[in-house]
Amino acid sequence: MLGQLTRSPASLAGLRSSTQLVARLSQSSRPVRLHRAITSAVSQADQEATAASTAAAVQQQQQSSSPDGTGTQQQAQQRKVGAAGPRTSSKEMVDTSPPRGTRDFYPEDMRLRNWLFGEWAAVAQLFGFEQFDVPVLESEELFVRKAGEEITDQLYNFQDKGGRRVALRPEITPSLARLVLGKGKGLALPAKWWIVGQCWRYERMTRGRRREHYQWNMDIVGVPGVEAEAELLAAITTFFSRVGISAADVGIKVSSRKVLAAVLERYSVPPENFAQVCVIVDKLEKLPRDKVEAELAALGVSADATEGILSALSCRSLDQLGELLGPAGHDALGDLRQLWALAAGYGFQEWLVFDASVEWLVSNAGVVRGLAYYTGVVFEGFDRAGQLRAICGGGRYDKLLGTFGGEDVPCAGFGFGDAVIVELLKDKQLLPALTQQVDDVIMVMDESLRPAACSIAARLRAAGRRVDVILEAKKMKWAFKHAERSGAARLLLVGGGEWERGAVAVKDLASREQTEVPVDQLA
Ligand code: HAM
């Protein structure tokens, strides 16, 4: 996970020895011996606080299992007893783990997050999209749809102190719709907008699925044709290529709600049975075929129609499906054929996989791609190795604004989460090596020269250099190590004979060469 991937053992350095012992022992599966070992090992003064935090840590270990197999549990255990070590006060140590399913971002984790968000922002800008933002807390009614979607059951919702029903957004699309409605006719169309924001879903956690995640969204408002979907897919594949992922690693399944509708129309299933038929067909993986056929028959679907529906939904080629559907498929397949032609123009057609099957397309609630609002083309990025959940997903939603009481405006967009992509980059060993970004470290050799060191820092920063000033008296050896750990290019020493000559000693940390540079020539 983005928040827990890059934490190095160094970030846990500085544990007091009794705390380290507690942390190590608390990973043991034998709580009774563990408790005895601890109570004899730590000082009398530490005992009370340690026993309390250890009991909590052991309990936590027994209750929780690492949701993603990335060593999170061990880190959580170490943090549970507190990196600051047990305190001698009678107060119980606060639980230092974040709420289950959520993440902390230590500075080393932020480097990766900033890199990923930077790539997303760069792609959105390459495509001429404009950034927008909305609150994480929204009115609950924005997300409560009647379709029985999973996303509604997973809402983090509550009543605020003013008695209003509010929710932490599980997705951003309804907020975008609210903004579009808010502008009304004043919004120049088409609008192309992007955002990266945190979303909350009370979900069962698996690898790459958490209770909060960040989502990159790009949406096009006001374009009815598949030119919009093609542009969005071009942005997604551009991002993948930038981070080193190829069409051999990732595919994008594409279908359309209209394809499903055309299949059902071709076999005379009335539109009101659409959702139910989809849910039944979706059971094919779990139930024997005759049971599925019996359930369809109970809905009045004939054996011939069942046969036709099942073979149509297993088609993996547009031409094959076109032959089966005849004129009924003209509209739906026309969109997809046009999308493929545009993809060839952009050069990303090798990423696309036509897939009419309902397993990915329809959720338990019978809604397309898990969300009730999709009306046309839908797509989902998947890892071809089949190890991970959906990497990204989106589609056309031309009727969402209407459901909020406004005038419908054609829209298409996608959401791309931060969790699965990081897992994929990790599997493919494509995670960038990111170090702290500092150019210069400044150390004073004589505390009376600290104001001078401050003026040098100010001068260098004004010139755009990233400068870290050592703020306390430290030994030279510490300063070198610190400068190297920060990835700095230079260590500047203010003091000694150089200072008397109006200069500072500049140590180049790559070549290890030291030169004397007059202060007025520093850059
Ligand atoms: P979605 O398929 O529900 O679509 O989510 C989009 C992406 O968000 C997923 O493919 C996945 O990368 C990420 N994601 C979703 N839930 C989680 C989770 N619990 N943990 C980690 N990552 C997650 C939507 O949300 C639509 N609103 C997308 C959209 C935008 N459609 C049109 N415009």
Automatic annotation (TrEMBL):
Keywords: Nucleotide-binding. InterPro entries: aa-tRNA-synth_II, aa-tRNA-synth_II/BPL/LPL, Anticodon-bd, Anticodon-bd_dom_sf, His-tRNA-ligase, HisRS-like_core, HisRS/HisZ. Its EC number is 6.1.1.21. HAMAP family: His_tRNA_synth (MF_00127). Belongs to the class-II aminoacyl-tRNA synthetase family. This is histidine--tRNA ligase. The keyword Nucleotide-binding applies. Residues 53-75 have a biased composition (Low complexity). Pfam families: HGTP_anticodon, tRNA-synt_His. It catalyses: tRNA(His) + L-histidine + ATP = L-histidyl-tRNA(His) + AMP + diphosphate + H(+). Residues 53-105 are annotated as: Disordered. SUPFAM superfamilies: Class II aaRS ABD-related, Class II aaRS and biotin synthetases. Residues 100-451 form the Aminoacyl-transfer RNA synthetases class-II family profile domain. NCBIfam families: hisS (TIGR00442). It comes from Tetradesmus obliquus (Green alga).
